[in-house]
Amino acid sequence: MKAKINLLRSRLMGEGNAATLARGAASSFAIRMTGTGINFITQVVLARLLGVGSYGSYIYAITWITVLGVVGKLGFDTASVRFVAAYSTQQAYGLLGGYLRYSSQVILLISIGAGLCLGLVSWIFQARYSLELLHTFWIAGALLPLSTALEVQQSRLRALKKIIQGQLPQEVLVPLLVLVGTVIAAVWFKSDLDATTAMSIRLVAVAVALGISFYLLIQVLPKEVRVSQPIFKSNEWFRAALAMVLVTGFNMVVAQTGTIVLGATLGTKQVGMYAVASKIAELLVFILVAVNSILAPLVASLHAKGERTELQRIVRIGVWIVFAISLSIAVILLIFGRQLLSLFGAEFTASYPILVVLIVSQLINAMSGPVSLLLNMTGYHGDSAKILAISATINIGLNIAITPIYGAFGTALVTAITSLIWNGSMSIIVWYRLKIIAVAIPERIFAISIKGDN
């Protein structure tokens, strides 16, 4: 037994792909778990202090930041994982420096424009909003460029396989600062907070995290990048990023359309009910994101080398780790779901049926977690975009038809249906394009099902 333990330890400390995946996933898991815990507490505190209406306004504005952030990033967050990882591996420091400079300039310009548009549109339609929501939107417009830059910085650090440095500012520091700031504000004002104050606190938190993230990137970049003459392949980078933004954009439509339709048709209270259930269901997500954060650069590297067998092995390990842990967490959430919802306030316990449906949706994601990643990192982002475009169209249609009638429960049901459609479709495409099984189903059963389709 001691010899086996020593062998396992030596393998984990080695330089192999499995060891890299295990260490990276473990680090990411720890950070995600810590960040998720802090964020959960933060959301509980915000929901209790703001109440359903103001909390819904806060979440509604955050949703618009998330949606417009897709435009602001223009796909350079996903593209960074691909290009930064490739150029770093190839020691192409001139290209790496050129890519970082070019992508930063484009992101800054577009994200500021998106933030200004959010503020302008909210001012034009101010008659439809409360004064609180209007002011919250204005602060959200200022927050958008900072939030966008922070996400791109995280992607760059991940591409350099600096998992801790890449995730710590956004995943842990931001929710921690929001939590501390909220408590201080509650004590200082000695009254109920509003959505505007909560958004202002988030603005400060993201600004601090962004400054730290920039410092960390400078520290880990190879010194050769600073002294090498930048080489620009602007057209190639822009085309790739544009394809990535289509993938991310359609994915965002699938994720956020329901919340937007809820807010537009039934008001922010329904948004708050759905948001709380979604926050709890997202506890299943952090293991998927943890594994994918280190799997992405590995996939890009192994595909570039043509090592398909090793790629299949690494993907299989990642998929089954994600599904096994996610299933365990899902069982716990189903058992204690009502108690968790009551932490946000007694009125939120009515969201339990919504929570059940969203848990099922997250389990579907866990079963085939890396399918989109595999297509994006191997040059088949076009297939990914097409599938997500069809899924987004279905999602919009179903949300328009179902959400106004069944409310937040209908939104959750549409989310689960859409998740099944795009995950199933991508799993099949990954097999036909790459001959990789990227779903948590025994290989023999998957092979039989594929042959049956033929």
SSE blueprint and pairings:
Layout lengths: L1 H11 L4 H57 L2 H14 L3 H32 L6 H29 L3 H27 L5 H26 L2 H5 L6 H32 L2 H14 L3 H21 L2 H37 L7 H16 L3 H7 L3 H54 L8 H11 L1
Helix pairs in contact: 2-4, 2-5, 2-6, 2-7, 2-9, 2-10, 2-11, 2-12, 3-4, 3-5, 3-9, 3-11, 4-5, 5-6, 5-7, 6-7, 9-10, 9-15, 10-12, 10-13, 10-15, 11-12, 12-13, 13-15, 14-15
Radius of gyration: 22 Å
Instruction: Estimate the helix proportion, in percent.
Output: over 70%
Shape: globular
Distance between the ends: 47 Å
User: What class, by secondary structure content?
Assistant: mainly alpha
Oligomer: single chain
Q: Report the mean per-residue pLDDT as an integer.
A: 79
Give me the strand/helix succession: HHHHHHHHHHHHHHHH
Report low-confidence residues grouped into runs of 5 or more: 1-14
What is the count of distinct domains?
1
| Biggest sheet overview | none
Number of helices: 16
Could you give the count of β-strands?
A: 0
Measured by DSSP, the beta-strand proportion falls in: under 5%
Subcellular location: Cell membrane
Main location: membrane
Membrane topology: Multi-pass membrane protein
Keywords: Cell membrane, Membrane, Transmembrane, Transmembrane helix
Task: Give the tags.
454 residues; membrane; 0% strand; mainly alpha; 87% helix
